[in-house]
Amino acid sequence: MKTVYFIGGTMGVGKSTVSQQLKLQLQNSVFLDGDWCWDAHPFQVTEETKEMVLENICAVLNNFLKCSVYDNVIFCGVMHEQSIIDGIISRLDITGCRFLSISLLCSEETLIQRLKKDIAAGVRSHDVIARSVNRLPLYQTLHTIKIDTSDKCAVAIAREIAAL
User: Fold this and answer.
1) Is the separation of the CB atoms in 1 and 8 below 8 Å?
2) Minimal CA–CA distance to 109: which of 12, 18, 9, 19?
3) Could you tell me which residues come within 8 angstroms of residue 152 by beta carbon, excluding any fewer than 6 positions away?
4) Does the pLDDT at position 99 exceed 90?
5) Exposure class string for 49-83: b at 16+ Cβ within 10 A, else e
6) Which of 22, 88, 137, 161 has the greatest number of CB atoms lying within 10 Å of its CB?
7) What is the pLDDT of residues 134-162, one digit of tens each?
């Protein structure tokens, strides 16, 4: 039986890093980062681009799910609203799959520290701090397994997820 892992969280919480670690810890795993489906310049959020990204994500995930080589399919994305998670799931063929939806959380202080490192490294722009901090409380309302990443390394968080 395949296991599908949805790993959500606000920008800077550690989704991509944890997902990469999880991929390495699980056998026969494949990983899709939602950011890869929306890497454009300039970054534009319109109804058309939102639908395009959703179609891209679902097409790739469905291809992974059809492939007999993969036992574990990992997807990460911001997914700050239940409707986003539900919308993606509704387009996937997860019949016979085990599905785990996880939200990574951390303290506001930890989040700001992580984002400041990314800004200093030139990976993110300064405006991400306010946007990310504002989204942090939204994850408490989701129908997901909550994992606090504040005082944990990515390897330990991935181990925790793999043990679910």
Assistant:
1) no
2) 12
3) 160
4) yes
5) eeeebbeebbebbeebbeeeebebbbbbbbbbeee
6) 22
7) 999 999 999 999 999 999 999 999 999 99
Counts of helices then strands in the chain (DSSP H, E): 6, 5
> CA separation (Å) from 103 to 40, 59, 148?
25, 23, 9
Are 75 and 32 spatial neighbours (Cβ–Cβ below 8 Å)?
yes
Measured CA to CA, the distance from residue 14 to residue 93 in angstroms comes to: 27
d(CA 108, CA 112): 6
CB 23 within 8 A of CB 30: yes
Domains of the chain in start order, with CATH, are 3-162 (3.40.50.300)
Residue with tokens 């909550």: 146
DSSP state of 163: T
pTM of the model: 0.95
Judge whether 45 and 52 are in contact, CB under 8 Å: no
Question: Nearest 5°: CA angle at 31, between 25 and 32?
Answer: 155
Structure tokens at 22: 């999880």
